[in-house]
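Tokens for histidine kinase. Go.
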Amino acid sequence: MKISRLSLSTVSALVTAAMLLLSMAIVFFGVLWVQNLYEQEYLDQLTPNARRAYDMLDRLELPKEADFLALVQQLKPLYETGEAELYLLVVKFGLAAAFLCSIIGFWLARKISRPLENLTRVVNNLREGDFSVRVPDDVQGTGEVQLLIHRFNALAEELENMERRLRFNTMAVAHELRTPLTIVQGMLQGMADKVFPRDDDRIEDLLTQVEGLSRLVNDLRTLSLAASQKLVTERNKVDIAQAAEQILQASRPLLQDAGMVLETGLKKAIIPADNQRLRQAILAVMENACRYAAEGGYLRCESGYLNKEEAFLRIIDRGPGFSQDMTGYSIDVFWRGEPSRSRASGGSGLGLSIVRAIVAAHGGRLEQENLKEGGASVTMIFPRNLPVKTGDVI
């Protein structure tokens, strides 16, 4: 039986019981063995007639009266001496058993606690900022220790991924802010030096850059709210089809400018949702499709129920689709549908990240895939039966 298969309480109980049994066995058999030696020594001290009476009684025979009286007289002092020595033997063997059990218990305790010592050392490294540390999975220990090591390794891996994403996102934010700030600074410096005229065109260019910065800040705030689980604070019954229809009607000019033909297949689907956040997610997917899939000239929006538990909203285009490493369920912050990080096509690269955050805040999931006939599909899947509560923080 391996220790790793047992709980700490079970191991402690088994070790305690084993130590008690071992102590009792040491005292019992030790005293019995020494008592036999002392018995032979005492018998050798008897006179011949007393020894003869003892042997006859041992054989269940009746000794002579004189021999029996001699045996009784000699046994009394021997009994008192033997009784004192017996007590002393119990104490000696008890101490020996306690010492031996202490050594065994110390060895077992070290064996059980060694994984915790390794874990403590690794935790100190993690505290100092080394998120790559791991505890070997082959370390022996009780069931709780094994589970603790497994959970710690998972936590360390998650922290390492978070640290890597934070480092990337910090660089990405700096990259996104640098270009518009450089443009604004250059224009303002040029107008201050009277290199550029202070006309309406220059001011409109500055407003355009400032609006872009404002959108980026709002997008970052949305992701920050999602990280702190405060993105969706109010949910009511919302028809996905109705919300999508409103966004499509408002986006007609955007679709026309992109040269995209709209096709709909909207079916009623009621979900508990934050209507404002839901509309924000739909608009983000629409803008993303118009920005990166305009060359396909086609956009389809459909909604309905997937099953008794889930509803969906799907947007399909005929664009170039997602890159191979972006299909499935993973969308990184600041990811764009184009290989370069140029802002030529506009946008902050946060669109689908925000959509995923909004859907996740509703308890749903975002799925994206490339279609066999060309183009891409983005599907937002929401649960149908979440309790509708005002002020419900997810």
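The mean pLDDT is 77.
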